[in-house]
Amino acid sequence: MKQMKGLLLASLLTLIISVSLYYSLLHMNENSNRDIQVNAGTHTKQISLNNDNFVDVISDFIDTSHLSKINLKNNVLEVVLLVNNEQTPEQMIYTNLPQFVSLAFDHTLNIEQLQVKVMENQQNRNDSVIILTCNLYRNDAWLVNGSQQLKDADWLVDPNWEQRMRIKKTIYWQLQSEI
Q1: Do 11 and 82 belong to one domain?
Q2: Same domain, 70 and 136
Q3: How buried is 176 (Cβ within 10 angstroms: 0-12 exposed, 13-18 middle, 19+ buried)?
Q4: Are residues 14 and 55 located together in one domain of the fold?
Q5: Which is nearest to 101 in space by CA: 34, 33, 153?
Q6: What distance in Å separates the CA atoms of residue 14 and residue 4, rounded to the nearest whole number?
Q7: Are residues 21 and 45 in the same domain?
């Protein structure tokens, strides 16, 4: 009987230690995940983008040759891309937009909205005009499968994708496609 009580006490003590260790590890993981976590699907670190690490993070993930302006405010990343003569607007957008989607939603923790404006210099104008805008949110359902989908679809000409990505083409888009 004494041996049974000792075994029961040891089992109870083991259970208490196991539960307390589980909850302390759970609490530790919650605190560490606020700043950096590993995304199991892509095996990349996710970071909190802020004004202190902004330039370094962007230069690590993005080809900035078409970047005209970038702004981070209140978890909204605003990007302005400028089309040059090296590529057509479509080529530039298909190349660059997936990079920014991946940066905003695959590599960062705190970006909730990505606003992209694409600008082009018109032939008879000294300034640039907006030809296309795109507005994405972290909770957009199609982003569950990641930005890889953007590499596999013709989303600039598909009305369903235009709606999902909230793409707006201006009159200048129509004009440049007629040229």
Answers
A1: no
A2: yes
A3: buried
A4: no
A5: 153
A6: 15
A7: no
**Total tally of structural domains belonging to the chain:** 2
* Choice between 53 and 121, residue whose per-residue pLDDT is larger: 53
Amino acid in the structure at residue 144: V
Please tell me the predicted confidence (pLDDT) of residue 154.
Answer: 85
46 shares its domain with 13: no
Residues 20 and 108 in one domain: no
pLDDT level of residue 30 (50, 70, 90 thresholds): very low
pLDDT tens per residue across span 50-103: 888 888 888 888 888 888 899 999 999 999 999 987 888 999 999 899 999 989
Give the Å distances, CA to CA, from 85 to 51, 163, 168. Answer: 31, 28, 22
* Owning domain of residue 17: 2-32
Section 114-125 average pLDDT: 82
134: closest CA among 109, 113, 149? Answer: 113
Tokens coding 170:
């201006």
